[in-house]
Amino acid sequence: xxxxxREIDVLLDEKRTFEPPAAFAEAAHVAxxxxxxxxxxxxxGYWEAWARQLDWFQPWREVxxxxxxxxxxxxxxxxxxxxxxxxxxxxxxGSALALLWEGEPGDRRTxxxxxxxxxxxxxxxxxxxxxxxxGDRVAIYLPMIPEAAIAMLACARIGAPHSVVFGGFSPQSxxxxxxxxxxxxxxxxxxxxxxxxxxxxxxxxxxAIEGLDYVSSVVVVCRSxxxxxxxxxxxxxxxxxxxxxxxxxxxxxxxxxxxxxxECPAERMDAEDLLFILYTSGTTGKPKGVMHxxxxxxxxxxxxxxxVFDLGEDDIYWCTADVGWVTGHSYIVYGPxxxxxxxxxxxxxxxxxxxxxxxxxxxSYGVTVFYTAPTAIRAFMRWGDHWPAxxxxxxxxxxxxxxxxxxxxxxxxxxxNIGGTRCPIVDTWWQTETGGIMITPLPGAITTKPGTAxxxxxxxxxxxxxxxxNPAESGYLAITSPWPGMLRGVWGDxxxxxxxxxxxxxxxxxxxxxxRVDEDGYYWIMGRVDDVLNVAGHRIGTMEVESALVDxxxxxxxxxxxxxxxxxxxxxxxxxxxxEGVRTSEELxxxxxxxxxxxxxxxxxxxxxxxxxxxxxxxxxxxxxxLLRDVAEGRALGDTTTLADPAVVRSLQRQFAGSEx
Length: 661
Ligand code: WTA
Fold this sequence. Notes:
Elements: H1 3-14, H2 22-27, H3 34-41, H4 43-51, E1 62-67, E2 70-75, E3 78-79, H5 81-93, E4 97-102, E5 108-112, H6 113-129, E6 138-141, H7 146-158, E7 162-164, H8 171-181, E8 185-189, E9 192-194, E10 197-199, H9 201-209, E11 217-221, E12 250-252, H10 253-259, E13 269-270, E14 274-280, E15 288-293, H11 295-308, E16 316-319, H12 326-338, E17 342-346, H13 357-365, E18 369-372, H14 374-383, H15 386-389, E19 398-402, H16 408-418, E20 425-428, E21 462-465, E22 474-479, E23 489-490, H17 494-502, E24 513-517, E25 523-528, E26 532-535, E27 538-541, H18 542-550, E28 555-565, E29 569-578, H19 586-599, E30 608-611, H20 625-633, H21 646-659
Parallel strand pairs: 4-17, 6-7, 6-8, 7-14, 8-11, 11-12, 16-17, 16-18, 18-19, 19-20, 29-30
Antiparallel strand pairs: 1-2, 3-13, 4-5, 9-10, 14-15, 15-23, 21-22, 22-24, 24-25, 26-27, 28-29
The structure holds 5'-O-[(S)-ethoxy(hydroxy)phosphoryl]adenosine.
């Protein structure tokens, strides 16, 4: 039993529950369980009603076509995602604020729906001018600036699927993703701010695409063109770097849009046409390009944003994710804008210039709905109650969390210190592959318990199954019927799609998480059951880190496991054996950790790196990860009877104890 399981048991015993506050429920979109029953009675009719809230150029013939494991939703329908996020609101909300943005240095910009529409149209025309058309993949490698959302929507407008790559990924990771998707256009920026430093994204892009001749255009946003970070309150020291522009290939964003027309007809997209690809880690060394369609995805993110966040016209909604992750796609860009909401976007770190930055933002923008990750909440807890206490957070009315299991202590701290005990908390379980939220309370209707994501969203069908596919109290989480936002495949690898998600049980989706269900039918998600780590809410494949390590000439063999971390949930622990003749040293340890950062990005840096003369293996030569996890957790060893040489582990344990300082 893990620490977390124990904590949950304690709280289950206490049966501590939180009813939706009466004042909240009264005004909420959903205040009772009616929609659950309605969706259960006629699931397709229920999703169809949501789809009808969107604008369609052509209606669908059929709601769902299900040939496991392939689904088609709203078959024959035609629509455009950007049209639904922008044009659809112009008449009623054209002058309402769509985007409020603050850079880390404190520079600000705002866009009304009309202004955002115009900017997206201009950039969409500019992309067309560069030869980008329907079906062409575009890589987006940007900091958290308005142009990230604008670029995504411009791609959507012309039917060019985007592949957003998190700005913290290394040039190598960017290159892998550009190559896999065959992107011929990359949109980047000269730089972005993070903890007072500048991240030189254009230089990384240049390195990433060196020799990739099919990348014919690079668009460069000048980070400081529209605002002046130098004049911003927290932006004294750094300057945006000047960057080398390659004639003919590189174009300045601001030059392009200045020359472009503000009118741009939206491409007519089939409901099943690809909206985007987003790479995510799996159990092999190579990230998977998760594919999302237009009609089903837009339907699910529109529905979940409206009901889970109970969004209304007066809300100021802030999701702290980066657009490089699926949370940013679905709950900064597509879901909220499809609902005509006002979205706050912030570029930088929560502790810059001090640990009150998020609360300064909440106070000064009057944030009403706030969505963040448990890792951030645990960091806030550690930083101390006095930080949030020093700000006026009284506008907040709803809090959300996503990305990893939230421990009950963190939930309660969030409820008391950020939500002032009056805000419901929505703990939302979902994945890159699911497109939108799947398991979550509806804040006006569902009684919550700290540590559980509660029940499937209306219209979503889940179960806990054992290996054989029989219902169990504790086992694997399963999604038992297709849902509109489900991934449509893995880019270029149909076999991997079948194998990863659909091979455990026929026709049932396997998300890779362990879970259990309590007497109220609430789902308690226990974390990944595969070789995927969740470090600070980021998915990292152990094999990816191992490949990065063995890529170094000094490394013979590497095994990577996760160990628990108080703030980040999990941390990367690497066990490395070096090639003969190489001497291990502290310098080499640091060099190898840095090598992983160069290959993947800082999120994958091993917290522990232990040199091992040998890795523990079974007699048939398989690395015994379970034992390595025990070593990394500092636990007593489990069963070692199948181990070829027990002395190997004992020596590792000694080294590990010595390395913890
Ligand atoms: C984990 C992020 C527990 C889970 C949206 C899942 C969670 C993986 C929760 C997906 C939650 C996400 N409670 N675990 N509320 N939300 N997870 O693709 O292991 O980056 O499989 O999508 O995060 O991570 P991804």
